[in-house]
Amino acid sequence: MDIRRIAFLALVLTLLPAAAYAQETSAAKDAYLYFVWPQDGMTIKGAFWCRFGLRNMGVTHAGDDFANSGHHHLLVDVNAPLESNDPIPQDKNHLHFGAGQTEARIELPPGKHTLQLVLGDSKHYPFKPPVVSKKITITIK
After folding, report:
1. What residues form DSSP beta bridges with 18?
2. Which of 11, 47, 74, 130 is the most buried (most CB within 10 A)?
3. From CA 127, how far away is CA 33, in angstroms rounded?
4. What integer pLDDT is reported at residue 82 of this predicted model?
5. How many CB atoms lie within 10 A of CB 44?
Protein backbone atom coordinates (compact mmCIF):
# COMPACT_ATOMS: atom_id res chain seq x y z
CA MET A 1 0.00 0.00 0.00
CA ASP A 2 2.81 2.45 0.86
CA ILE A 3 4.56 1.79 -2.48
CA ARG A 4 1.37 2.75 -4.36
CA ARG A 5 1.07 5.99 -2.42
CA ILE A 6 4.70 6.88 -3.06
CA ALA A 7 4.34 6.09 -6.78
CA PHE A 8 1.17 8.22 -6.97
CA LEU A 9 2.84 11.11 -5.15
CA ALA A 10 5.85 10.89 -7.48
CA LEU A 11 3.55 11.01 -10.51
CA VAL A 12 1.66 14.03 -9.16
CA LEU A 13 4.88 15.89 -8.38
CA THR A 14 6.19 15.11 -11.86
CA LEU A 15 3.09 16.55 -13.51
CA LEU A 16 2.85 19.72 -11.40
CA PRO A 17 5.40 21.75 -13.40
CA ALA A 18 3.54 20.97 -16.65
CA ALA A 19 0.23 22.04 -15.12
CA ALA A 20 1.73 25.29 -13.86
CA TYR A 21 3.27 25.99 -17.28
CA ALA A 22 -0.04 25.38 -19.05
CA GLN A 23 -1.66 28.06 -16.91
CA GLU A 24 0.95 30.70 -17.71
CA THR A 25 1.24 30.62 -21.51
CA SER A 26 1.92 34.15 -22.71
CA ALA A 27 0.10 35.62 -25.68
CA ALA A 28 1.54 38.01 -28.22
CA LYS A 29 0.91 41.55 -26.99
CA ASP A 30 -0.80 42.56 -30.24
CA ALA A 31 -2.87 39.37 -30.74
CA TYR A 32 -6.36 40.06 -32.09
CA LEU A 33 -9.15 37.48 -32.23
CA TYR A 34 -12.34 38.24 -34.16
CA PHE A 35 -15.27 36.87 -36.13
CA VAL A 36 -14.92 36.97 -39.90
CA TRP A 37 -18.54 35.80 -40.15
CA PRO A 38 -21.20 36.23 -38.80
CA GLN A 39 -21.18 39.86 -37.84
CA ASP A 40 -22.72 41.36 -34.74
CA GLY A 41 -26.49 41.87 -35.01
CA MET A 42 -27.06 39.56 -38.00
CA THR A 43 -30.19 37.49 -38.46
CA ILE A 44 -29.42 34.06 -39.92
CA LYS A 45 -31.77 31.39 -41.21
CA GLY A 46 -30.81 27.92 -39.98
CA ALA A 47 -27.31 26.48 -39.64
CA PHE A 48 -24.37 28.67 -40.66
CA TRP A 49 -20.61 28.64 -41.21
CA CYS A 50 -18.86 30.49 -38.41
CA ARG A 51 -15.45 31.77 -39.51
CA PHE A 52 -12.75 32.71 -36.99
CA GLY A 53 -10.06 35.34 -37.51
CA LEU A 54 -6.76 35.73 -35.68
CA ARG A 55 -3.94 38.24 -36.20
CA ASN A 56 -0.38 38.22 -34.85
CA MET A 57 -0.56 34.65 -33.54
CA GLY A 58 -0.83 31.25 -35.21
CA VAL A 59 -3.44 28.51 -35.14
CA THR A 60 -2.33 24.95 -34.40
CA HIS A 61 -3.66 21.69 -33.00
CA ALA A 62 -4.41 21.17 -29.32
CA GLY A 63 -1.39 19.51 -27.77
CA ASP A 64 1.07 21.30 -30.09
CA ASP A 65 3.13 23.63 -27.93
CA PHE A 66 4.43 26.17 -30.46
CA ALA A 67 5.26 29.72 -29.38
CA ASN A 68 2.60 32.32 -30.14
CA SER A 69 0.02 29.78 -31.31
CA GLY A 70 -3.12 28.14 -29.98
CA HIS A 71 -6.48 26.80 -31.04
CA HIS A 72 -9.99 28.23 -31.12
CA HIS A 73 -12.85 27.79 -28.67
CA LEU A 74 -16.33 29.13 -29.40
CA LEU A 75 -18.44 30.18 -26.42
CA VAL A 76 -22.17 30.04 -27.15
CA ASP A 77 -24.51 31.87 -24.76
CA VAL A 78 -21.86 32.00 -22.02
CA ASN A 79 -22.18 34.89 -19.57
CA ALA A 80 -19.83 33.79 -16.81
CA PRO A 81 -16.17 34.81 -17.22
CA LEU A 82 -13.62 32.06 -17.78
CA GLU A 83 -11.28 31.20 -14.95
CA SER A 84 -7.75 31.85 -16.21
CA ASN A 85 -6.30 29.11 -13.99
CA ASP A 86 -8.70 26.43 -15.23
CA PRO A 87 -8.87 24.77 -18.64
CA ILE A 88 -11.67 25.95 -20.90
CA PRO A 89 -14.64 23.64 -20.29
CA GLN A 90 -15.88 21.37 -23.07
CA ASP A 91 -19.66 21.17 -23.31
CA LYS A 92 -22.53 22.37 -25.52
CA ASN A 93 -21.69 26.00 -24.68
CA HIS A 94 -17.88 25.73 -24.92
CA LEU A 95 -16.99 24.27 -28.32
CA HIS A 96 -13.38 23.18 -28.87
CA PHE A 97 -11.64 23.26 -32.25
CA GLY A 98 -8.49 21.37 -31.31
CA ALA A 99 -7.73 20.22 -34.85
CA GLY A 100 -6.75 23.78 -35.77
CA GLN A 101 -10.05 24.63 -37.46
CA THR A 102 -10.67 28.24 -38.44
CA GLU A 103 -14.32 27.70 -39.35
CA ALA A 104 -17.16 25.43 -38.32
CA ARG A 105 -20.76 24.74 -39.28
CA ILE A 106 -22.88 25.75 -36.30
CA GLU A 107 -26.51 24.87 -35.69
CA LEU A 108 -28.40 26.72 -32.97
CA PRO A 109 -32.08 26.77 -32.00
CA PRO A 110 -34.17 29.77 -33.13
CA GLY A 111 -33.75 32.89 -31.01
CA LYS A 112 -31.02 35.30 -29.89
CA HIS A 113 -27.58 33.93 -29.11
CA THR A 114 -24.24 35.35 -28.05
CA LEU A 115 -20.96 34.13 -29.53
CA GLN A 116 -17.42 34.77 -28.34
CA LEU A 117 -14.08 33.29 -29.35
CA VAL A 118 -11.31 32.38 -26.92
CA LEU A 119 -7.86 31.22 -27.97
CA GLY A 120 -6.58 28.32 -25.89
CA ASP A 121 -3.03 27.09 -25.43
CA SER A 122 -1.88 23.54 -26.12
CA LYS A 123 -3.69 22.26 -23.02
CA HIS A 124 -6.93 24.30 -23.42
CA TYR A 125 -6.00 27.03 -20.92
CA PRO A 126 -6.67 30.67 -21.80
CA PHE A 127 -3.53 32.66 -22.58
CA LYS A 128 -2.24 35.36 -20.25
CA PRO A 129 -3.42 37.93 -21.01
CA PRO A 130 -6.51 36.23 -22.46
CA VAL A 131 -6.97 36.38 -26.24
CA VAL A 132 -10.72 36.83 -26.67
CA SER A 133 -12.95 38.30 -29.34
CA LYS A 134 -15.65 40.87 -28.85
CA LYS A 135 -18.90 39.13 -27.85
CA ILE A 136 -21.42 39.31 -30.67
CA THR A 137 -25.18 38.70 -30.74
CA ILE A 138 -26.95 36.93 -33.59
CA THR A 139 -30.55 35.88 -34.15
CA ILE A 140 -31.45 32.52 -35.64
CA LYS A 141 -34.77 32.28 -37.50
Report:
1. none
2. 74
3. 12
4. 84
5. 16
